[in-house]
Amino acid sequence: MTIVVGIQTNTAAIFAADSRLSTNAFVGFDAAGEPQFVKQTYENATKIVHDTDRLAMAAIAGSATLGPVGVLDYIASSAVPRAPAGGDQEALLKGFADGMAKLRAEFWRDKKLAEDRWPRTVVMLALAPTTTRSPQLWRIDLLKEEPSVSLIRIPVYLEGTYDSAMSLLYGYHGDVMDALAKELKIGEQTIGEEAIYDLLGSNKVLSPIDKLAVGVMPVQDAVELACFLATVQIQMERFLPGDPYCGGPLDVMVLKTAPSAEIVWLPGKLLHHPQAGSLDTAEGGPNEGP
Amino acid sequence: MKALKERLQQLQEKQAEREKDLRSGNIRIERQDERSADQRTAEKRATKK
Q1: What's the pLDDT band for A283 if we cut at 50, 70, 90?
Q2: Which of A128, A235, A264, A274 is the most exposed place for a label (fewest CB within 10 A)?
Q3: A–B: how many Cβ contacts below 8 A?
Q4: pTM, whole model, 2 decimals?
Q5: Can you tell me the distance from the alpha carbon of A255 to that of A122, in angstroms, rounded to the nearest whole number?
Q6: CB distance A164 to A1 below 8 Å
Q7: Alpha helices in chain A, H assignment, sequence order
Q8: Are residues A42 and A21 in contact, defined by beta-carbon separation less than 8 angstroms?
């Protein structure tokens, strides 16, 4: 899995993502006809890209493949459509998402995998609208055949595995609240999850996320906030039992929308020769000459 | 019962409504001051005694 943090200020969007790639490679069917997958983990995946126009950027969580092409390659080689004044941005993005969904459906149908077993892909998309100087964040969910597209209306949004980062932002841990909802009773009647979560949404105590002034936050601070939240998730997973879902270096991309639209790429890693560091210092290395 | 993951996502989506309610005064909060966390903790301790 992944941790992706999306932040939107008044004039910039920031994505931070980890580099761990956990893959379930489809290898065939067992004697009972059950699809079989093998797990593998890599540490140098890049999960953020910008489009060909450099006016939109995307980060993904979940499955990275659409079959013949990766999700990020698809976006990196496309121009994400932007609605003119009065246009319907959601409809345009739905059309864009349909293109990805079609490839994905063809691929998994060809593999004869039932639709409810198709691996999920979530794309966070930030774009510079044609009509305003503020960025827009969208979420494309490829779960079933039909993709869903929704506008993200909060300034800090988490995707992938984010329970630890979210507990810090919202002031409670989801599974602890779930347990509380099941145990807490008035007389013999349990209070239930709906009531607990409604209360959490309307209570009068401000959680950290309520107090963040993200709109006016300088880009550098927003970058640091995104990295801080991603690091919290990575480090909590590192210290808690079980295989970590997130890890590796953090990559960051910024889409500035004012005074003009501009992508800034802040990679946490670069392609390099695996022995480059040791070659530099080794006797007779490339810097020493023959 | 909804899966926790789905619940957390729903909570994030609901945060937009909460922000609106907070800014519009639909949810009334305590007066915010600039006391430090240490001061607030000390006051709470004093109240408990």
Answers
A1: low
A2: A274
A3: 56
A4: 0.88
A5: 19
A6: no
A7: 71-76, 89-110, 163-170, 174-183, 193-202, 208-211, 219-239, 276-281
A8: yes
**Record: contact B15-A201, CB cut-off 8 A:** yes
Which pLDDT score, from 0 to 100, does residue A113 have?
A: 87
Q: Hey, is B24 helix, strand or coil? A: helix
Q: How far apart are CA A111 and CA A178, in angstroms?
A: 37
Cα–Cα nearest to A253, from A281, A222, A280: A222
CA separation for the pair A253, B16 (Å, rounded)? 24
With a CB-CB cutoff of 8 Å, which residues 146-205 of chain A face chain B?
150, 153-154, 157-158, 162-163, 166, 170, 174-175, 178, 193, 197, 200-205
Q: At what angle do helices B4-24 and A174-183 cross, to 10 degrees?
A: 90
Phi-psi category of A145—alpha, beta or left, where left has phi over 0 and alpha has psi -120 to 50?
alpha
Sign of CA dihedral B19, B25, B29, B35: positive
Q: How far apart are CA B16 and CA A268, in angstroms?
A: 31
C-alpha distance from B41 to closest chain A C-alpha (Å)? 16
Peptide bond into A259 cis (omega under 30): yes
Instruction: Return the residue in A153, A172, A207 with the most chain B beta carbons within 10 A, the one to mutate for interface testing.
Output: A153
